[in-house]
Amino acid sequence: VKTVPRPTLQDDFSVIVNVMATGVCRSDWHGWKGHDDDIKNHGMPFIPGHEFSGVVVDVGNLVKKIRKGDHVAIPFILSCGHCAECQFDRPTVCLQQAQPGFTMNGSFAEFIAISRADRNLRKIPDGVSFVEAAALGCRFTTAYRAVVQQGLRLDSLQSPKTLSSQNRLHRTSRKIICIFGCGGLGLSCVMIAKAFKTEGSISSIIAVDVSSHALDKALEFGADSIVNANSLSNEAIREKVLHLTDGLGAELTIDAAGFSSTCENSMYCTRRGGRMVQVGLPIGSHRPDVPMGLVCGRELEIVGSHGFDAKELPDLLDLVLKGKLDVKKLVAKEVSLEEGAVALMSMDKGSPLGMWMITKFKKECSKL
Description:
single chain, seven-stranded mixed beta sheet, six-stranded parallel beta sheet, about 20% strand
């Protein structure tokens, strides 16, 4: 841990945020280990950290919606608002996106400079803590987009004229969802699915993993059924999921792990006419064997999912505020910046299911 100069405003549209809570994520470990191209391109030294919340302490002259003293939450994709994709309302694939901890210095520090503040920051409502808001920053926002927006396509219902009557009926029916992988992201998917099961969009939640401990957590967080994939062949895993879905498969499957096997099994376990969402980032050199004949013959949809749109943050914060999403269940402990650095390095041996949240910053320390 080192001392670095406090950041300054980047332009008239930026703010400085005093970080109050920031999570230690597996993605930070990937960046630290040299697995991220953006970090490789700009080199070290560098400040990681991308899931955080804090207090605005300085505001650019042209910032209109954010004021000094505001408590704010920040998604990890900061879109520009001007490129071709943003103009087409696709901020998660913004051509000029910035990502704290990857394309720019991150939140493992007391202060961070954030550009495009009006577009990308959202105020935290009273009743939601900094830790809860920071916990949303990566895995829960990513899970929300995968399950709700890309999976259930509930955001499309805001513009029903763009959908045929058949599609509206299909997308509003209660669905069985099967989630492959119950790490931090997968468990977040389970919890998001549970919230929307209560809302009536989902009828049943199935969780698949090789870890008994992870599956116990999945049941605790809202899964109705589990499949322990440890020592099972892919065919046996598929048979168990089909058994739980009356031989039909799940209307919505989510690969939240990124292994070739979880990707393939997700597709084979998707019901005819259903949708498979790939949200887990690919792991390892072995590429999945995509059964395109199956995709065509069963009219499956394969949809990618990445990040989260900042304008949707108030909806997610509202779920927390109303008690429909208890994100603190995935917060294992609150630690100091030094302890957070140790937690990051310890991911060489594997990632914990619960997140470590850095909430203690010494005045003389502002960087890993």
